[in-house]
Amino acid sequence: MRDLTRVPGEAPPLVFITGASSGIGQALAQRYAQAGWRLALVARRGALMREWATAQSWPAHQWAVYEADVRHEAEVAEAARACLQAQGLPEVVIANAGISVGVDLSLAEDLAVLRDLLDTNVIGLAATFQPFIEGMRTRRRGTLVGIASVASVRGLPGHAGYCAAKGAVVQLCETLRGELRPHGVRVVTLAPGYIDTPLTRENDYPMPFLMTPEAFAERAFRSISAGERWRVIPWQMGVVATVLRWLPRGWFDALVGSQRHRKKRRRDGV
Question: Which of 7, 12, 96, 177 has its CA at a distance of 20 to 30 angstroms from the CA of residue 162?
Fold first, then answer.
């Protein structure tokens, strides 16, 4: 990350993380706390988030919890306003909150499921970034981080909503990167593979290169610090993603068409 050298007495840098009550978000909070950063932690389950943060024995001045559901723009805006007022403008904003659920587009009721996926994973990400963009642009420094997925690379049967949502995250972040780079603001897109979180533990299919949230957070911290534009974590899944991206459509269709797929119930995570 660019030089964040502080004058004596200046507060440590601040990171704003949504979906911080479990999985990747929680692991990222721990990694940034370990590095001495101040934390603005956003979650729907505010009481649970506070209980967990208190148990970490962090100094009281190092962290704050804001309760918000990213599907509701007003709640996210209020959390951001409270953060700006109490803690200041973040150096890094990580839009991590997301859900995964199977979608069957032959079912009329699944259109509502699709909408929920897009509201959470895409509109929620935009609503998380929006309150901080102008301040970062004026300051000419800051980093916005979008958590996408390897599932953004190609459309997978049974996962129309999730693949579409994470694909939109990638394109949204890429667009913002071009818009904000002249103003000194970085945009980083991270694409996790399989991470051992509540989101993945009920999967009934093989999950190659499965990694712990802590291992992901360590690699993510380094990528964000370096201001990398795009990073698949772990790197092995990056190879898989590259192969899938360039696989001819006929071959890809034959490959995924041979797999069994089931509709998953909603699970929070990324």
Answer: 177
